[in-house]
Specification:
CATH superfamily: Anthranilate synthase
CATH topology: Anthranilate synthase
CATH architecture: 4-Layer Sandwich
Number of helices: 8
Shape: globular
Number of strands: 22
Helix content: 25-40%
Radius of gyration: 20 Å
Length: 391
Amino acid sequence: MLDEYAAGDFFLASPNQTMVGKGIFSVIEKAMETENQLFSLPSRVEAALNQAKQAGHPYPVAVGAVPFDYSEDSEIIIPEKVDVSEPLDIDEEQQESLFDMYPYEMQPIPEPEEYMNGVNQGLKKIATGHIDKIVVSRALHFSTVEQVDVNQLLRNLALHNKQGYTFAVDLTDEKPTRKQKESKGKRTLVGASPELLVSKCGHTVFANPLAGSRPRSDDSVEDQRRAKELLDSEKDLYEHAVVVDMVKEALAPFCETMEVPESPSLVKTEAMWHLSTEIRGTLKQLETSSLELAIALHPTPAVCGYPTALAREAIYEIEPFDRGLFTGMVGWCDENGDGEWIVTIRCAEVKERSIRLFAGAGVVAGSKAEEELNETSAKFRTMLQAMGIKD
């Protein structure tokens, strides 16, 4: 399926399956209102899927990405063709270094010292008692001599993210029409997220929030020490509990029953340890779509903070860049409402000779600015490794 992918396609590999969407049957149009683009998104997607079915599409599926900011447009289409197959099986010899082959320049946004100042601003807001948590993010912008090879970047990400969710979404400003097969100035969102926001299959709902993390270590003894430290950390357990409580609260109106473990477990990627809770539920109504559930959850405190509205406003004030699709969600929804939506983290936006990486850290009472900076540095490793750049 990786060999089938070409720039402009939709690609999502999960532990359960691999999906590739090719061509554009229709584009989900922007809503009339300007305040909240997410409010009517499920109904607009449902209408587009019904129209595609009536027009003879054999298997209409809406695929794409939803931004962090509810006032910005989503990037969702119905492809002309969708192929679904087994999970990826990748040969490690297929990895190639991208950035060893040509020069590049890198610019942190903001600079590390300014980022730590932003964390301290967040801590001051928490100290007032109005905000419990805020996620403060930063970016790395790379300019390259040669055009970035998105296909190889995606392959490298998939190789090192076999238990997670590897994705690519076309962000081209002007989508090609059926007559115009090529578009100019291709942009692609690409990443390897460890976190499922929510999935729906029939009456079954599954969510897997992650919050609280530690960087991995190459030393096995030190790596296990960090894992245990995370599992015993009052600060991280509190941060995780805030997210789990919000997920339960958001899903409760849709569910007949819900199973939530009393305490989190540990999951690991090549770069990070995370606290994880697997939440399962049974829907009251079969027609509830995966996208409707995802929007009810978005954004979780894991990527925004809590309370959501106050944390979001603080993010706009502190962060010196537009998150765009970072900390939004990527996924799919079919005509039955089944689908899965992934939290858009460990990701980058690629445009010809530039690539911008994103990473954030959850700030709560007791957080330290230098530790949060180090956490974002560790989270950048997923993309940097795929680019062939060593720490």
